[in-house]
Amino acid sequence: WWRAPEIGLCERYNGDKIDIWSTGCIMAELILLRPIFRGTSYIDQLDKIFDIIGTPDLAILNDTCTPTTTAYISLLPSKTKKDYNELFGFKYDPVTNTLISGVSPEGIDFLDYLLTFDHRTRPTAEDALSHPFLKTFHDPMDEPTNEFLVDEHQAKIYSTAEWKSIIWQMIEGFVPPSWINDKDDIADD
Fold first, then answer.
1. Domain topology for 6-140
2. Neighbouring-strand partners of residue 99
C-alpha cells in the first residue's frame, strides 16, 4: 500500500525518493486513520492512486514510464485530483465542535509535496525536511545527509577468493569518518 508508483511503472528505478512516497502514504494514513491506497493488486493500487492524485500528464508518463505502461494508462478514464483540503483538512465533531482529525493547510501542502507522482520532481529527504510544515522540527545541524550509496560489486559474480580480495582491499582503504573522535558522541563512564 505504500509502494511508490514508479516501482511498477518504470523499468529500473530504485531511487531514494521511493521512501518519500511511502512517507506521504503513512502521513495520509495518520490523518485519515486508514490506509489511503488500499489496493488489492498492483493495477487496483494504481487505480486508487489516480483516484486521489489524478491521472498524470501524458508528457510525464512518456518521460517516466515504460511505453507499455504509458499506453495502458492512456486507455484508462482520466481522473482529476481530489481536493486535498476536503480530504485531509481539519474535521470537527458536529456536536462538540472538537477537532477529530485533519491537518493544517501547510500540512496539506507538505503531503501534496510528498505524494508527487513524478519521482524526478518529488522532494529529497533534505528538501522535505526544509518544508515549512516541519519548521518546528527542522535543524540542519542535526540532520546528517550522505550521498546515495552505489555498490559497484552488487550485480557482479565473483569467486570466494575474489570476494575475499575485494573485502580486504576495502578494509585496507577504510578511512574513519571525521566525527569518530568527537567527544560529544562518546558517553562518559
1. Transferase(Phosphotransferase); domain 1 (1.10.510)
2. 92
Q: How many CB atoms lie within 10 A of CB 117?
A: 22
Task: Write the DSSP symbol of residue 140.
Answer: G
Domain ranges of the chain: 6-140
pLDDT band at 155 (very low <50, low <70, confident <90, very high): confident
CB 41 within 8 A of CB 57: no
- Among 1-10, 47-56, 124-133, name the one with the lowest average pLDDT: 1-10
Q: How far apart are CA 41 and CA 112, in angstroms?
A: 24
Query: How many Å apart are CA 177 and CA 180, to the nearest integer?
Result: 6
CA neighbor of 5 nearest in space, from 32, 27, 51, 34: 51
**Torsion angles phi and psi, residue 97, rounded to 5:** 60, 25
pLDDT tens digits for 13-58? Answer: 667 788 999 999 999 999 999 999 998 988 888 899 999 999 999 9
SS3 184: helix
The C-alpha cell at 51 is: 483516484
Q: How far is CA 63 from the centre of its chain?
A: 19
Output the pLDDT for position 150. 74
Please enumerate in sequence order all residues whose Cβ is within 8 A of that of 55, keeping only pairs 6 or more positions apart, or say none.
73, 76, 78, 79
